[in-house]
Amino acid sequence: MEYKDYYKVLGVNKNASESEIRSAFRRLARKHHPDVNPGDESASSRFKEINEAYEVLSDPEKRQKYDRFGAQWKQYQQAGGSAEDFDWGQWSARPGAQRVYTRKVSPEEFEDMFAGGLGGFSDFFETLFGSMGGGVSAGSTAHAYAPGPQRGRDVEHSIRIPLEQAFYGTTRILEWEDGRRIEAKIPPGVQTGSRVRLSGQGQRGANGAQSGDLFVRIEVEPHARFERQGDDLRLTVPVDLYTALLGGEVRVDGIDRSVDLTIPPETQNGKVFRLKGLGMPKLRRPDRHGDLFVTVEVELPRNLSGREKELVREWNDLRKV
Question: How many folded domains does the chain comprise?
């Protein structure tokens, strides 16, 4: 019979506290859970080992017996003994003395242990503790792990929306596999990474418990004209050479309205103008907006005529005087 090193299975030392053992179990159980590794037999086998180790080390009585056995087993091995010759009788659970062990577990522990199904314990475990030594075995009807009301899981769903919908807000209809249709209202001002919580719209609860929540994670698509930075928007506007030199006005089309921007004489290429309040609405204060920053891109005239080139030369000569 193979000896089981439960401390090694959980990756803790023999002096580990209850909280350290519980933390190690939850971390490993989530990693190797059958729901996370569908079809992976090695992960399923590892999951059962982790659960068995936790079943022993989380129970003070079992842990004490296991530690006594382990010390004797180590001495026996060091003396050159083999597993076939070891006297298992003194450690075997007595027939008819098996009992139901009661222990409270958190909902998270319960989910980690039982959501994927456990199967049986090893021969080593059965020999030391019996078929009902505290775990839940097939056919068992009276034990502390009987599931009570279990709140449904929270669920996250991602959606992509254009910038205009992030500006004005929008509504999306989400449909569950069970036929439920949920209206998700996306408020103005959301940005990539924002999460909208829909209370009670997640996975249904078990045995009359409340349902989990649905979190809608937002991804705002890149825009062809605007660059978003938080609640501010940035936009590049072409300005002809003559307006840049002499001054004038250019039309700026914002996301929700158009305005006339005054260009002072001798405006340099790359000059940035701030249009206050023409940016995105603030998520929790939609009556307030960020700003729109407009960068001037001076456009040079093309296809100059002979006369135009002559005038440019004269102008150049004047600048040299």
Answer: 3
Do 103 and 203 lie in a common domain? no
For residues 245 and 269, give the distance between their C-alpha atoms in angstroms, rounded to a whole number.
10
Q: What is the pLDDT of residues 135-158, one digit of tens each?
A: 433 333 333 344 557 788 888 888
3-state helix, strand, coil in the chain (%, to 5): 30, 25, 45
Domain identity same for 21 and 100: yes
What is the Cβ-side half-sphere exposure of residue 126, based on CA atoms within 13 angstroms?
9
Domain holding 213: CATH number? 2.60.260.20
Of 160, 297, 159, 167, residue with least CA distance to 228: 167
Per-residue pLDDT of 157-172, as tens digits, reads: 889 999 999 999 999 9
Residues 6+ apart with CB under 8 A from 277: 289, 290, 291
Residue 168 lies in domain: 155-220
Contact 242, 263 (CB under 8 A): no
Is the Cβ–Cβ distance between 21 and 10 less than 8 Å? yes
Q: For 25-64, what is each residue's pLDDT tens digit?
A: 888 988 887 777 777 888 888 888 888 888 889 888 888 8
Under 8 Å CB-to-CB from 24, ≥6 apart: which residues?
10, 11, 12, 16
The whole-model pTM stands at 0.53
107-114 vs 18-32: helix crossing angle, rounded to 10? 40
Q: Are residues 184 and 69 in the same domain?
A: no
Sheet holding 232-240, edge to edge: 227-229, 232-240, 292-299, 272-275
